[in-house]
Amino acid sequence: MYPDLSYLFHDLIGTDRDNWLSIFKTFGLFLLFAFLVAAWLLKKEMLRRQEIGQLRGKKVLRKKATAMRPTDYIFNGLFGFIMGYKIPYAIANIEAWKQNPGQVLLTTEGNLVTGILFAAALLGYYYWSDRKRKDELPETQEVTMYPSDRISPITFAAAIGGVVGAKVFAIIEYLPEFFADPIGTFFSGSGLAIYGGLIGGFLAVAWYLRRHKIPLVPIMDAVAPALIVAYGVGRIGCQLSGDGDWGIVASAIPEGWFLPDWLWAYDYPHNVINGGDAATELIDGCNDRYCTRLAEGHYPTPVYETSMAFAIGGILWALRKRLTAYLGGLFCVYLFLNGVERFCIEFFRVNDQYDVLGFSLTQAQMIAIGFMLTGIIGGIIVWKRSSGLQSSNADE
Question: Domain spans of the chain?
């Protein structure tokens, strides 16, 4: 396992574990990769839909050499203060930073003097830049801005909404821990629920699109393949870091199993949570920070989910052109397949279960059922609506 980059480079080139590279956590890096992959795939599909006229551009006025507003100075001054307040403090507490970057960066502790100096330096730079161009007349020109030109703010909205949503859903599932330490639990880097992330990201992006008068449904179709592929990329980070998303204790490897044994049962050596609630044992001769492995092999469910996510992504990518005319259809297929995947994998994962109408279901399974039903009902509505439109066009 590679809880952080120091463990990866130890295996690659023999450098020490738990060095300064420990500040780069594997799961966080793959979460970043997931957003980058999603943004890339989304832009490709948005460009295609723009070419066929499904997504249209909008005329906007763009100014050049505009002066900074007071709010710009406030924002940049605050940004400079935060950077100066936290970064020198984090460097001075490098050992704590290596162990838990989120805990160091999200505390209220910092260096007040360097915070003020950083803020003053940044404000001074922007004031100088603003004065330098004060004699330039603002040129206004009309340009056409397409939805694909807004991919960066769309991705940013999805990231913020997704993280907040994932944290909120995780808190709902583990309320006692939240009430015991509300601030610490909310701002910790652990405990993220994927369905909360999807719902939170959807709401944030929907708000952004509505604000800029961009049609929501074509974007939902365009983002469907990107969402599931990005999910698979994120699960790679779960597997490599050993973040506790493994499955239940695996049964004995069946006869005739021809794949590597670790694909059936894996003990996650050097996992990032040191076993969590699972039974663990020490790794012989290990003197590093992460020196445990699971006492028993568990199903490597992140690997299964990555495989299924990439397979679903391939299906959606193959269907995207055929379903272009059926607005909302591709997203309905995504909802259904996503729900099927998560509902099935939950039987092999370690999660709290709830009694629902006599059935024991996890929180994720209940949401997965909702996804499947929404996908089916939505697909029927899309099909009938599209068939009705085709009939009307034929009559004309």
Answer: 66-132, 151-395
